[in-house]
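Fold it.
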Amino acid sequence: MLGHPDDPRGIVLPLDGRPAGTETATPERNGGPRPVHHGVPPGPALLLSWRPAPGPAGDGEDRAWGSTLSASSELARRLARPGSTRGPERGLTFRLALPEAFGAESLLRMAGADHGPGHAGPSALLPVGTPGGGPAPGAGLGLLALTVAAEIATTGTQARVLDELTTAVGDLAPSCGMRLDSRLRAAEESLRAAQTELLEHGAITAGTGLDTAVANLSVLRHQTHAWISGWERVVAAADRTGTPGVILREQLGEVGKLGWAGFPGAVHGAYQALVLDARRILLTAADHLLRSSNRPLPALRPLIESDLNGRAADLARLHRLATQLSVLPLTVRKRSGGMMPNLIGEQAAANARTQALFTRMANALRPPSWSGQIVVEVRSLDSGELQVLRPV
């Protein structure tokens, strides 16, 4: 694969547009580049290594992620030896490790991406390619690896957070509806299809419906901003010594005219819209770079960093809001002329459930930790198809 010299350890692929197998710091006497025979070339580089894939008995739990990719897929083509029509060697597990996220750091911090397992044995890596042989294939392969790593992490974290929010509402506010916006469901499906098309064809086609998803997510993002700003104003105006719970619930429900029954579902939708839009930013930028041949991977950063930082900041606001609500003292509003003890008790119980709901929301929205590593493993099956693996 990738023209490696039959060395079982691995290769290094430059990501910054330099020709493979060369270094630019020390030219030859005639002014040409000096070949690198061993070691890691200067600049960012993809570390690609491989090992025999274990049999089903040695696999432990099923780590398959996403659909199986064809033997003629874009990912298979980039993993294959130059000129090969069979794709990458079969029966191997490839490990692709990137030195940085090239602008997607905030997205991976939101998701708390896991890193893949290390490999036992020799760790030396050899550069691939010949001096003057043209741009290295590392940029495109690295871009595919980065989108896969981000999708594995974000879809897993997104599913966990949404499940925790739904469970919290079911336990503590069962009368609050959790009806999901069909536009979010459609955007999720479009993003999954777009990721598959990048890996299969190296481009996203109109058939995925991504253009519609982009338009819908833009509308939902502006709606989310309005909701969060409105909820923040309610919290800022609340009495820190004690706010009647019934009044707080009414004020939160006034934002967007959702009613208290619509508030938990709105938080659920706001989180989902922000994460989906962050995923969309990376996938559309990756599509743009893959269509532009020989673009270095560092060119991704200016395309995505600012927008992803903005989505991460919005998620941080949502988490901060839930945290502030969880510690806001709630009191019972006593009507003039007194109130029956049972009604006071009902209000107190409702306040307790409300604060517990806010606490569980804050815990669900807390950003997970990220190791800072970006590693993807891909298994080449005996059929020639490829299977992306989840981190161990």
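Confidence is low (pLDDT under 50) at residues 1-6, 21-41, 115-135.
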